[in-house]
Amino acid sequence: MVSVEIPSYVKNEKAGRWVREMAVLCKPDAVYWCDGSQAEYDRMCETLVGTGTFTRLNPEKRPNCFLARSDPGDVARVEDRTFICSVKQSDAGPTNNWVDPAEMKAKLTALFDGAMRGRTMFVIPFSMGPLGSPIAHIGIELTDSPYVVANMRIMTRVSRAIWDVLGNGAFVPCLHSIGAPLAPGQKDAAWPCNKDNKYIVHFPQEHAIWSFGSGYGGNALLGKKCFALRIASTLAREEGWLAEHMLIVGVQSPDGRKTYVAGAFPSACGKTNLAMLIPPTGFEGWKVSTVGDDIAWIKPGPDGRLYGINPEAGYFGVAPGTSDQSNPNAMKTIRKNSIFTNVALTPDGDVWWEGMTKTPPPELIDWTGRQWTPESGRKAAHPNARFTAPAAQCPSIDPDWENPSGVPISAFIFGGRRSQAVPLVYQARDWASGVYLAATLGSETTAAAAGAVGQVRRDPFAMLPFCGYHMGDYFRYWLSFGARLAKPPAIFGVNWFRTGKDGNILWPGYGENMRPLQWIVACANGEGGADESPLGYVPLHRDLNWKGLESFTLQQYQEIMSLDRELWNSELLSHDELFAKLGDKLPAELLTQRRKLETEIRKMPPQWTVAG
Questions:
Q1: Burial 32-68, CB ≥16 within 10 A → b, else e
Q2: Most C-beta atoms within 10 A of its C-beta, which of 150, 319, 393, 608?
């Protein structure tokens, strides 16, 4: 059995005991304490090149960049294998998978017994958020995957200094194994995993995470969705703050006034594009800066306002669809020091994916390692292929993105991928109607999660796969949270994906999203013009800046802002289906808001749109 030497700089007694206990259980050949240094990262990457997990990319085109190809059975979040093991099933709620924690702990203990034989157990101390920030929290991940070590170094703040900040305080223990022990002399797989036996398990009462079998993305990088959302949402409710699936951007006007807004979008719905938006022609002097692209932790400040941080240190972005047109800042961010997973490889050692260029290269090696041409009849990159890149490399990074106090949040935006029903942009009338807007958020599913693609599902607050407790309690918490604020942020809905009768998307999107974003910022500052609609407040055509997009006509704007009474009657029925699942934990206030909306829909004509 391996002997675990606790470094002298580790003063946290609970951490030392836990590492020893898990080493006894998992039986690794060695235990290595990570320090997050560049030298360590370089060694880890070289190890991964040696095992065939990494391919070093062309150093002239992609300096210090690597390509990884996962097992085809380990390519995305696995929501059906993700569990919230609260003591009471009613605390997990009907939208989470639940197993009794004692039963699950027994099952996992059997799986983890000897799971790291033939491998090294890496101890990764990490901070979610700037070290020492009052909004940040610390975790420790144990893993047998060098791929996880390399990615966690980009995605979180890993350093020896974590132990000094932690002292003898509380941390979130995160245990991970790919579930593929090696016998003496056994040849390792290029992507070892246990694809038929995956568990991503959260124990809310312990604030602990156990993940087994998968080496991919948020299943294995436990600081991401597992800690930053599922466990953090539980911590947030206990302590009086918010842990949300949100970007944070700063919007600065030509006179230098900056307004920060947070936005929630389901995965692969344009969140990263909005987080790195470049203002289009007609917005000279305006600047948009990136605080975070995926997750926001938000706490009330001493002045009564809300302050948010990006708890992550890197981007784990969806590659397909990312291009110099859709997101030039992301493309610049990933030019160096990045890890690409499940993208295609060009003959000259660069990367490619669908949507990166209009015309695909004549030949590639696809994400499965096979030769590929445009006539192959299959995708060159997996639809959920990813890049991992340091946030500090983003050209639009906000100067205050690592401010330990956070940045002040003036508005919340909620948007999904909807081809019909939902208009381009609107503002909720008040906090309660805004919570209803967010609670009934719907989106057409994408490849970011395993399962069917293209179906509309309710994704409340874009948190359905990520809330660590009962969604009805989550709605109630949001209602009460806003009631405690003297001036709660305004709440808005957006939809970049509305289609016309021909099935084509009506709104040009990308940088043009600055136009509704400018209106959102104006309204958040009490300055935007608006008109009443059945859903709330909407901008008239003249309320948006059309300079540089004069080709988008008033008629097109009215089409993208229109509401169909029959469609909205169907929407309300879909809301009812979600609410029925939540049973008696659904807040009565949301039923009141539903009745108000039904009244507005009933009063409107069969087809409604903004005035000219």
A1: ebbbbeeebbeebbebbeebebbbebeeeebeebbbb
A2: 319
pLDDT band at residue 77 using 50, 70 and 90 as cut-offs: confident
Instruction: List 608's β-bridge partners, or say none.
Output: 563
Asked about 26 being catalytic, the answer comes back as: no
Q: What is the mean pLDDT of the chain?
A: 96
List 232's β-bridge partners, or say none: none
Examine the pLDDT at 553 and tell me if it is beyond 60: yes
Q: Which residues pair with 436 in a beta bridge?
A: none
Q: Report the sign of the C-alpha dihedral through residues 297, 301, 304, 308, in that order.
A: negative
DSSP letter, residue 146: H
E strands in 373-485: 386-390, 407-415, 425-427, 442-444, 456-458
Residue corresponding to tokens 């941080």: 309
Tell me if 289 sits within 8 A of 252, measured CB to CB. yes
pLDDT for res 293: 95
Confidence (pTM):
0.96
Crossing angle of the two packed helices 38-51 and 146-155, in degrees rounded to 10: 140
| Phi, psi at 217, each rounded to 5° | 50, -135
Report the C-alpha gap between 314 and 294 in whole angstroms: 10
39, amino acid identity? A
Cβ 393 vs Cβ 319: under 8 Å: no
Instruction: Note whether 448 and 77 are within 8 A (CB).
Output: yes
Nearest to 136 by CA among 235, 15, 259, 208: 235
Judge whether residue 450 has pLDDT over 80: no
DSSP 8-class letter at 511: G
Q: 456 pLDDT band (50/70/90 cuts)?
A: confident
What is the percent of the chain with per-residue pLDDT over 70, rounded to a whole number? 98
Q: Which two tokens stand for residue 372?
A: 């590929």
Task: Please write the tens of the pLDDT for every residue from 24-60.
Answer: 999 999 999 999 999 999 999 999 999 999 999 999 9
- Kindly tell me if the per-residue pLDDT of 449 is higher than 90: no
Active-site residue, selected from the candidate residues 269, 394, 467, 523? 269
CB under 8 Å to 368, separation ≥6 — which residues? 69, 72
The helix/strand/coil state of 517 is: helix
Tokens of 300: 């009330």
- C-alpha to C-alpha distance for 75 and 451, rounded to whole angstroms: 12
For residue range 471-502, list pLDDT tens digits in order: 999 999 999 999 999 989 999 999 999 999 89
Instruction: Using the CB atoms, write b or e for 105-118: b if 16+ within 10 Å.
Output: beebeebbeebbbb
User: Of 72, 416, 53, 74, which is closest to residue 218 (Cα–Cα)?
Assistant: 74
Query: Three-class SS of residue 307?
Result: strand
Distances (CA, A) of 562 to 422, 426, 543, 567: 8, 11, 16, 11
Task: Give the Cα separation of 262 and 274 in Å (integer).
Answer: 11
285 by Cβ neighbours in 10 Å (0-12 / 13-18 / 19+) ranks as: exposed
